[in-house]
Design goal:
eight-stranded mixed beta sheet; globular; alpha/beta; Rossmann fold; about 240 residues
Length: about 240
């Protein structure tokens, strides 16, 4: 039996990923920083709920201790993420972004990934086939964001793409350090979720496709890569 933890899984892409992996036979922990929402989501999916706030050391440590006591972990999906938005739904460009905005975004999107990964590494190293999937974004691609011929070029925000570019680097360095694990970054696509005020152009079912696929890679699968549903993405 494969045991999987998905952070930020009480809604959106995390919830759909949990649903799909449960259907594939995984035992799934719904990671949520809100106990009530997490419990409702877990009950709906017949999953396990784990209280975890990726920005809080004590919360992450407690979650790791609970999952260790329950038997361990095989797959970690670092899904929890935030994006700073204006009241009108727009994003903060270079003239408006502040250090505090950057710090808040990085606290969840980057430091949260590192905090959770660090806490669960001992459990993953005991697994016969450990996997880590980090939620990135197409906006993290330096190749695309500097190419006027791509839609990515037109995105004006700073904090979110910078944080996801950092996630890509974290992914590569961890993959090199732990060659026995399959560690990859994925771009789910512009999916309609609360993160973007449901402005995305694809469904959570479509967005979850690459997450689910990479969560199920075997020991001979890719590692240290950056993928969307169509294949590898340019860094």
């Amino acid at each position: 039996m494969t045991t999987t933890l998905i952070t930020g899984a009480n809604k959106g892409l995390g919830f759909e990923t949990a649903r799909r992996l449960i259907a594939a036979g995984h035992t799934v922990y719904i990671g949520s920083r809100d106990a009530d929402r997490g419990r409702r989501a877990a009950e709906e999916l017949s999953a396990r709920m784990i209280l975890i706030d990726v920005t809080d050391d004590a919360s992450v440590a407690a979650a790791a201790k609970t999952i260790e006591a329950d038997g361990g972990l095989d797959v970690l999906i670092n899904n929890a993420g935030v994006e700073e938005r204006k009241p009108d739904g727009g994003v903060y460009g270079p003239a408006e972004v502040t250090a505090d905005m950057m710090r808040e975004t990085f606290e969840t999107n980057v430091f949260g990934v590192v905090r959770v990964t660090h806490a669960f590494l001992p459990l993953l190293q005991r697994s016969a086939a450990p996997v880590i999937v980090n939620l990135s974004s197409g906006l993290a691609s330096m190749s695309r964001v500097t190419d006027p011929g791509t839609p990515t070029y037109m995105y004006p925000g700073v904090a979110y793409p910078a944080s996801k570019a950092a996630v890509n680097m974290v992914t590569v360095q961890f993959a090199k350090a732990f060659p026995n694990m399959r560690i990859n970054a994925v771009e789910p696509g512009f999916t309609a979720t609360d993160l973007n005020l449901r402005t995305g152009v694809q469904t959570v079912e479509q967005g979850a496709e690459i997450i689910v696929r990479m969560a199920q890679v075997g020991p001979d699968g890719p590692t240290g890569g950056y993928f969307d549903a169509e294949g590898r993405l340019p860094w």
